[in-house]
Amino acid sequence: MSSNQEEYKKHLLEIMTRLKSGEATEAELREIDQWYEGSASDEKYADGMSNSEKLQAKAKMLQRINSRIYQEAVPLRKINTHQNLRKMALAAVLLVIASGSIFFYQQNRQSKSDQQILANKIAPGGNKAILTLANGQKINLNDALNGQLATQSGMRITKTANGQLVYEVAKDGSSETTPQYNTIEVPVGGQWQAILADGSRVWLNALSSITFPTAFTGKERRVEIKGEAYFEIAHNKAMPFRVSSLGQTVEVLGTHFNVMAYADEKVIKTTLLEGSVKISDGGRTQLLKPGEQAQVSANNIKVTNDVDIEDVVAWKNGYFKFADNLESTMNKIARWYDVEVVYEDKPDNSLSFGGEVSRTRNIRDVLNIMEYTGKIHFKIEGRRILVKK
């Protein structure tokens, strides 16, 4: 290592020490920001190396960053300040210095700034949905004012300020004996919450819908979903709650569970957090205990307790957790950011990732975490994400 590199290494370590003690100046923080984004010094310390050597060094560096940062419990969903981002950058600085490779080599020729401009045009999802009333009237919940939207079957339908739809008995309400059904449809890049007439709560993920009666009567409470939903069911032993999805039925009395039933996924996954549920599909039934997941396919119902509950409900809690295979992970990203995913080669579902990140973050931040493995790369082309090895 040259004397210039040694001096630069010492300089970075000094800044890191001051940052940890809270004494770093704004100018020093800007210097670290510029270095982390890949400044002119990248090329300065890459001189004399072949392209293959640069790529090998980069892969080793990123693997170390991934194992040290993401496997040592540094959840990105908790990083919500610029100061914390700098600390993460400095963790990367230490590892890079330790490897003797103080540079980021750009594998493709498109500049970071160009990719960032494209990424900035892809906004993360948010609260958006369409409510269809029993008479066929459609209400765009994004545009509707907060407050009462309609009255049906003696139930008042109200939109709240925090993105919820609430069904409750109207003061003058005379309930009808014939059930009237409403549907909430969440588009790509959307999410919504609802409190049903019995007090049960439901969270809808992107590209999902729920059809339900405005008031529950008779011997059961039955709803139908498409896509993914999380339920917290109000207890009523005399009136079981049933969720239908793609031929499967989940029966509960009072419990918390998640159903993932997208048409483009290979299995329907029902995960139980509290209480107990019974899964029925094509004459087959299976009881679940808390912490178990039922995976329903064309051939059978498989039950497993080897499931990451935090990963299952990450979407409902507002973040991505990378604990699934490549295709399923990219499906989640596509639904939330409203993008098309294109694979240069057949998807390698043996790849494993680490880390967590808020769903409010820029799509480039999300893709960067996955790229830290050094085994996968992404290129943004308009609203398309090209997946490359």
TrEMBL record:
InterPro entries tied to this protein: FecR, FecR_C, Ferrdict_sens_TM
The FecR protein domain, residue ranges: 183-278
Record bears the keyword Hydrolase: no
Protein name as catalogued: FecR family protein
Domain Protein FecR C-terminal: 324-387
Keyword Heme: no
Domain of life from the UniProt record: Bacteria
GO molecular function terms noted in the UniProt entry: sigma factor antagonist activity
Pfam families linked to this entry: FecR, FecR_C
PANTHER family per UniProt: PERIPLASMIC SIGNAL SENSOR AND SIGMA FACTOR ACTIVATOR FECR-RELATED, PROTEIN FECR
Transmembrane regions listed in the UniProt entry: 88-105
Keyword field: Membrane, Transmembrane, Transmembrane helix
